[in-house]
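Exam revision sheet. Question 4 asks you to relate a sequence to its structure. Input first:
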Amino acid sequence: MEQKSMTALVSAFSRAYHSLNNEVTIFNDSVARQLLTDEEYRQIAKNMSDGIGFFNPLFVGEPEQALRYIVDNQLSPSPLGRAAFAEKSLEQAVQVGAKQYMIFGAGYDTFAYRQPSWADTLEIFEIDQPATARDKQERLKNANLVIPNNVHYIEADFTKEAWEDALLNHEAFDSNKISCSTILGVTYYLSKQTFETLISAISNLFPKGSSIIFDYPDEKNYTEKAGERAKKLSMLASAANEKMLASYSHCDMEFLLSAHDFLIYEHLTPQEMTKGYFETYNKANSLHRMTAFDNVNYCLAIRK
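Answer key, structure tokens:
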């Protein structure tokens, strides 16, 4: 039986916590908190602060200080960084003609429920396994959040099923329209073959000028050189039965994308992400500085 993703719920928690506890944010997700019940929010917070010994054995402080440390150092950097990068890139794609937005592995992504004015012309498709998609819609209903008319759900596990047929048969979808696709926080859990199959399908489905936005772990993530944060993240994911399966060098990724008619348009290393997206927050929050995850890169590629 399929289950809703625990890592997706923790990601929603981290975005909610960051937005609630900072005036200046890296990424302000005003909806994430509404998707979690009070009990879930409290329980995740407690589980995390109780686990401070795992994250930082030398930490001394109160539970709330421990939670802040864990969120800022371990939970938030990747969800915040990829969301900020993706939505900025999506806005640019819309400016040059994108009319459809595909969110692969949508989880508890909230873009569709806090749409900026520039998204009015988009048809938005959330593609995820049925258990997570239905759980999310139930949460939206319980939070009295209206599902906009331009939002559509494709219930399919895109790692196993022919999701393309469900998309092609959807009355709101048009394969001739330039589209933007995001694959956020997903590549870690896909084998290289599955990821390449997905890129190939996207390339075959969408016209020239369409774009893909994703984050991926580089090849150091599975060696002794990986930072402690990356190792702990991998251990947490494995404990939630969401094992990390693949990593790539920049050359690997360039070659894979090129083989399916995609050219890298923008590529950010962790250092570049921290400078470009975290700097304003860090200046305002000198006691709670954040840096992008050690071995995670961010990529925007365009179909040629």
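Marking note for examiners. Residues 221-225 have pLDDT under 50 and may be disordered.
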